[in-house]
Sequence to fold (290 residues):
Amino acid sequence: MRIKKSVGTRVGDFLIYTFLILLTLSIIAPFWDILCESLADGWVTGFARFWPSRVSFINYHEVLGNRTIWSGYRETIFRTVVGTALNMICTIIGAYCMSKKRFPLRKLWTLMIVIPMFFGGGLIPSYLWNVQLGLRNTRWVLILPGLISSYNLIVMRNFFSGVPADLEESAYIDGANNLQILVRIYLPVSTAVLATVSLWNMVGHWNAWFDAAIYITDNKLLPLQIVLRRIINAGQEALEEMGGSSNVKTSRLDNLKSATLFVVMLPIMCVYPFLQKYFMKGTLVGSIKG
Fold:
């Protein structure tokens, strides 16, 4: 039986759908604008910004022919993959230990984890410490200092605390040790929070640039975001210094910048939809339990 909606309900639905459509268009429009500008050959104005009159892939040819772009991809992919894997391993182990009431000095360790969320030593002590450890101008300076996020650890600890204790007790009776319990019981039921925290770490590593700007001076180790920053800030000179073609016309600088932006954004945009369905569930379940 189909329920007939009142005039007020239909008007309300119309306003809600209209708002959602406009919101969606406002999110898509900047990406579409960048794509159209990257496919143009020269200045684009007016309607051409949303539909180029002549599509050209010369900008992508220039960008993808730049050796520094590919070395930046290599370093960023290494940082994202290795950094996310190490982040997750350390966070999972720490969260599992912190979720156990029998863990020695549990409250003290929790306090020590929470304090760095609000107070830090500052940039200069961190820089001196990393230099003394010999991490400067290495890949590991971008990974090891941020190996564990206090917020991610607390979210995952709260999620693990909600796993029924009966499952763990039955596993202990069957002779399982802590590692087996973690791998065979906790991880399979924690898909949502694992995907959510993994997504946070991946996006954080992919978009990070400030630490590389501070600690990395070797052009071969520069991540993709630094390459993008140099291209946007320095324009034609940066492209030529980093191996770009010297005959690039000044009128195409904006087209090249847009092409570079799209090349940088595309990989992480392709990964996000596969993890998005776990995002809200993992965030809410991992945050509501104290």
In short: The CA atoms of residues 133 and 141 lie 9 Å apart. The radius of gyration is 24 Å.
